[in-house]
């Protein structure tokens, strides 16, 4: 279980309490800070270095940057373009996001819900921290397409609504790292737990989870073997081992895209990492369709049936991927369990986003 360093955790709790009484129109940010200090039921404490400890100034600034299309080279795309709040901070209506040139990106946009727990980010683990991941799409030619660091900094410095904001939040004028830190501060607040499963397993509510979902959980941790990669702890669960696996799915897909996606190998250049991708969390999975690294499976039923069939014929497929022998009733129960992992505050997170953008 992850643990917030004691001094950072205590400081966050104190800051959240103080901010709550002085927040005024930024009450949503005080609530965001409270979530970071005290995550919802079922989630562990956030492990934050002292220099990454957020405050409401950084959260508010980060949220505004997150929704601002002027951060892209042609002012047409923001972080929220691909991570849509109303769609569980991903995109439900496209397998992969639209690229800056009008085409499509290679990979499905991961949900940002609970992203603050991830150690290596992006589907191939390219980014070693949340603030560094934030910067990748800003300069990726097919995404936000800023040509240089200087062009982005000059643009932000000219915008009147950011005048003095970085100085207040970070004690210095805007820099590329402080842009990443600000947006990461907002993204760390996107915590969602207290699901029906959490109330049943961690909250002492025996009737919170239906019988079919309870049967599905027994399959998840038993016959189906899902918890080998999607780990469940005794006190909290992130539903991921944070590792990289070849599920065999890329073996079926190499001709579906113009350029083969080699997964983790594109970062490590190790032959054994070909077609390995990071294990995604299953929290809120019923709200984050479509699935797989390229968004090619539309439903949880499709995903369960893929794994029930034992994956593909890829000889390098992870040994944990095997025929499961699930019956139709068991497939339904397993899907029912996955549907029980939706947090109870998704609408609140969307409302916070809309409030902060003036769209409420």
Content of β-strand: under 5%
Shape: globular
- CATH superfamily assignment of the largest domain? Cytochrome c-like domain
At CATH level 2, the architecture of the largest domain is: Orthogonal Bundle
Under the CATH scheme, which class of the largest domain?
A: Mainly Alpha
Mean pLDDT: 91
Biggest sheet: strands side by side, in what order?
1-2
Order of SSEs, N→C? HHHHHHHHHHEHEHHH
Distance between the termini: 37 Å
**CATH topology term of the largest domain:** Cytochrome Bc1 Complex, Chain D, domain 2
Q: Report the major sheet.
A: 2 strands, antiparallel
What number of domains? 2
- Indicate the low-confidence ranges by residue numbers: 1-6, 16-23
Describe the SSE topology.
Blueprint: H1 6-22, H2 27-37, H3 56-66, H4 79-82, H5 130-139, H6 149-158, H7 165-170, H8 176-188, H9 196-201, H10 211-221, E1 244-245, H11 265-268, E2 277-278, H12 300-308, H13 328-339, H14 346-356
Description:
The model is unreliable at 1-6 and 16-23 (pLDDT under 50). It contains 14 helices and 2 strands. Helix 12 packs across helix 13. Helices cover 38% and strands 1% of the residues. It has a two-stranded antiparallel sheet. The chain has helices at 6-22, 27-37, 56-66, 79-82, 130-139, 149-158, 165-170, 176-188, 196-201, 211-221, 265-268, 300-308, 328-339, 346-356, and strands at residues 244-245, 277-278. The chain has 360 residues and is mainly alpha-helical. It folds into 2 domains: 6-191 and 346-356, Cytochrome Bc1 Complex, Chain D, domain 2 (Orthogonal Bundle), CATH 1.10.760.10; 196-339, Cytochrome c-like domain (Cytochrome Bc1 Complex, Chain D, domain 2, Orthogonal Bundle), CATH 1.10.760.10.
